[in-house]
Amino acid sequence: MKLTRESLTNRIFSDPKNYPYGFSRSGDFSINESKALSQYGCLIAALVDGEIDEQTGDDRHLLAVVYGTEPPETVAEKAWMKYQKRINRPKLMSICGNYNSGVSDEGESNEIEQGDIEVEIDED
C-alpha cells in the first residue's frame, strides 16, 4: 500500500512504549498538543523518516523545524519538538545507585571494618 498524506492524517499516532496511556493522560502535553500529536504524528514521522516526499511549503518548514534551522510555529510543530525532547532525554541515574569509594573528601577512609564499633549500654 502506498503511503499518502491523506492516509497518514487519518491514522492516529501513538507511542505505547513511552506513553502507554496516551499523550493526553501523560501530563507532558496540553490538550491541543496531544490532539495535534495524535492527528499529525504519523504524517510528521513519515516526513522525517523520508517515507514520503515533502509536497508543500508546510512540509518543508516542518522539516526545517525538525533539523533546527527554523523555530516551530504551529501547534503540531511545537508538540512534535516537545515530544522528541521528552523521548530523547538522557536517562537519569538511580538515587540509590550512588557509588561510594570509601574515601572522604579529606582523604580519610569512610569504611567501617568489623569490630570497629563499640557499644555502651547504660543500665540505669
Question: SSE layout and pairings?
Answer:
Elements: H1 5-10, H2 31-49, H3 57-66, H4 75-87
Low-confidence stretches: none
Specify the oligomeric state: single chain
> What best-fitting shape do the alpha-carbon axes yield?
elongated
C-alpha termini separation: 87 Å
Radius of gyration equals 26 Å
Secondary-structure element pattern, one letter each: HHHH
**Average predicted local confidence, pLDDT:** 81
Main beta sheet strand tally, sense and closure: none
**What's the helix count?**
4
- The fraction of residues in strands falls at under 5%
* Proportion of residues in helical segments: 25-40%
Number of separate strands: 0
Label the structural class: mainly alpha
Structure description:
The chain is mostly helical and 124 residues long. The chain has a domain at 34-89. It is built from 4 helices and no strands. α2 packs across α4 (75-87). It is elongated. It starts with a helix and ends in a 37-residue tail after the last helix. The mean pLDDT is 81.
